[in-house]
Design brief:
125 residues; alpha+beta; Alpha-Beta Plaits; 27% strand
Amino acid sequence: MSDGVTGVNKVSREVVEKIAAAAAREVPGVADLGGDVARFFDRVLDRIGLDEVGDATRGIHAAVKGATVDITVVVVIAAGATVADVIKAVQAKVASAVSGFGLTVTAVHVKVDDIAMPREQTPTL
């Protein structure tokens, strides 16, 4: 259905990053997103009552050029997860999610920044 209306449509970098972050968080084996410094500042913001400030796009960078996108995802892998499997799953999930919004994903780069070790159970007295 074309009514003759034309124009330039743009999707902001922040929107792409939110889509990518939500998709990456759904992948089994991804414990968290973002590097050490970003996670540290998020913990500080959480403690002062600004819980949601940095969470939406933490660990994601998107370069948007028209309708093409190049995405970098920084992840923390859960202990026991197979790194190669998690990376492939993140790449597929993020590319699929972003493509679903009509954008062409040229690359999804995944950087494993840390491993989340299980916390030891402290016996209660």
